[in-house]
Amino acid sequence: MSIVSEFREFIARGNVIDLAVGVIIGAAFNNIVKSLVDQVIMPPIGYLAGGIDFSRYQWVLREDNPDTKAVELVAIQYGAFLNTVIQFLIVAWAVFMLVKLINFIRREQDKETGADAKPTLSPTDALLTEIRDLMRAQQGLEPVTPPKPKPPGRGRSK
C-alpha cells in the first residue's frame, strides 16, 4: 500500500473528519467568545468600576524610552490575562453545558430503548461461563457470578 493511499484511507475515517470539524468549530467559537468578553462583558464591568479598561492594566518593569524608535517597554499585562481567564471560564461553561445536554439526551434514549434491562450473554459467552462454572464445581469451588456486560453503543466505532 503506497503512502498516499494509506494517508487517504486515514483521512477518510469518520473519527478524523469529526475531529477536524470539531477543531474548526472550536476555533470559530473561540473568536465569538473573545469578542463577547472584550466587547460585551468587560466594557460594562470597566464602566461600573469607574471607566477602567482592564485590557490595558499592566505592571511596568521597564519604561519605554521615547528617544529611541525601538519599543523597550517591558510589562506584565495582567489585565489581558484577566480577559483571557474570563474567556476560558466562558468556554469551559459552554463545554460543560454541551456535555450535560449530550448526557441528558443519552439518558432519554436509554430510557426509550430499555437499555437498563439486563443484557443477555452471547452464545459464546454463555458457553464459556458454563465451562468455567463446571470447572470450578469440579474443584469444589462456588460458581462465579458473571460480570455485567457493557451496554451496546457506548464504545468507539471504527
From TrEMBL:
Cellular compartments annotated: Cell inner membrane; Cell membrane
Pfam families, A to Z: MscL (PF01741)
Record keywords, A-Z: Cell inner membrane, Cell membrane, Ion channel, Ion transport, Membrane, Transmembrane, Transmembrane helix, Transport
Span list, region Disordered: 137-158
Transmembrane helix found in the keyword field: yes
InterPro entries the record matches: Mechanosensitive_channel_CS, MS_channel, MSC/AndL, MscL_channel
Topology within the bilayer: Multi-pass membrane protein
Superkingdom per UniProt: Bacteria
Main location: membrane
Keyword Transmembrane listed: yes
Residue stretches spanning the membrane: 12-33, 75-99
Entry's family note: Belongs to the MscL family.
PANTHER family on file: LARGE-CONDUCTANCE MECHANOSENSITIVE CHANNEL, MECHANOSENSITIVE CHANNEL MSCL
Function, in words: Channel that opens in response to stretch forces in the membrane lipid bilayer. May participate in the regulation of osmotic pressure changes within the cell.
Quaternary organization: Homopentamer.
NCBIfam families (alphabetical): mscL, PRK00567.1-4
Record's protein name: Large-conductance mechanosensitive channel
Species of origin: Phenylobacterium terrae
Taxonomic lineage from the root: Bacteria, Pseudomonadati, Pseudomonadota, Alphaproteobacteria, Caulobacterales
